[in-house]
From TrEMBL:
Protein name as annotated: Glycosyltransferase family 47C
Keywords recorded for this protein, A-Z: Glycosyltransferase, Golgi apparatus, Signal-anchor, Transferase, Transmembrane
Main localization (coarse): Golgi
InterPro entries, A to Z: Exostosin, Exostosin_GT47
Locations listed in the record: Golgi apparatus membrane
Lineage of origin: Eukaryota, Viridiplantae, Streptophyta, Embryophyta, Tracheophyta
GO molecular function: glycosyltransferase activity
């Protein structure tokens, strides 16, 4: 319902104040935290078809969506921001599981992993990436894969060396920030993703990127990293300024 809610808000502001009308919204900022940002829809085809609402196209959008190629949902002045993670929950978890503590889970992922396509179009969720992960590695004891929700999942992240961050319907995922905040090396599997604040966060130093087509080779790729530069990545990842750049303040 975001489109109708925002439309109502704009109508109210433009009726009661002069600021919107003098620039038609070009000096206003909106936050779009949905899967496809300012398109306000979880499904890419529907999001791209609907596009960005006309009344927002002159404004600035802060959104948790961004790709390195042309896309209707970023055809507006925008800044990619991190998804919101509750700072208090991260701090509570770190008090029990410090960054440099024992990490007894090698590779972690908890989330939706379809065995067969279920949606009405017959397409696999996550462009089949999560399905391949489940089929290939669910029997591998090094991979801690869970398909069901668990309220205490942050404790699992804090115990893990590598945390898989595959795309869902959209490229971004809150688990990317949670992994970094809790010291688990994020393994980003989302082709063309545009990550937040590249001037402040050197993503290549704190994360791994795996192409969607190479997801079946995850085991080999992670073994190579573990044998070569894992300790350097962890040292960069555990630096306090990284979490400071990606976590929201306690009082937003």
């Amino acid at each position: 319902h975001a489109r109708s809610l925002l439309s109502s808000a704009v109508n109210l502001i433009s009726s009661n104040h002069p600021f919107w009308n003098r620039s038609r919204g070009s000096d206003h900022v909106f936050v779009a935290s949905h899967d496809y940002g300012a398109c306000f829809h979880a499904m890419e085809e529907r999001a791209a078809e609907d596009g960005i609402p006309e009344f927002l196209k002159r404004s600035i959008i802060l959104q948790t969506f961004g790709v390195k190629f042309d896309h209707p949902c970023q055809d507006v002045e925008n800044v990619v921001i991190p998804p919101f993670i509750t700072p208090e929950s991260v701090q509570t978890t770190l008090e029990k599981y410090p960054l440099t503590g024992r990490r007894d889970i090698w590779v972690f992922f908890r989330g939706k992993m379809e065995v067969h396509p279920k949606n009405i179009s017959g397409r696999y969720y996550s462009k089949k990436v999560r399905t391949v992960i489940w089929r290939k590695y669910s029997g591998d004891p090094r991979f801690y894969l869970r398909r069901h929700r668990f309220a205490g999942y942050q404790s699992e992240i804090a115990r893990s060396v590598f945390c898989l961050c595959p795309l869902g319907w959209a490229p971004w995922s809150p688990r990317l920030v949670e992994s970094i905040a809790l010291g688990c090396v994020p393994v980003i599997i989302a082709d063309g993703i545009r990550l937040p604040f590249p001037a402040a966060v050197r993503w290549s130093d704190i994360s791994l990127t795996v192409a969607e087509k190479d997801v079946a080779d995850l085991g080999t790729l992670l073994d190579h990293v573990a044998a070569s530069n894992l300790s350097a990545i962890q040292k960069n990842l555990w630096a306090p300024d990284v979490r400071r750049a990606l976590l929201f303040n306690d009082r937003v």
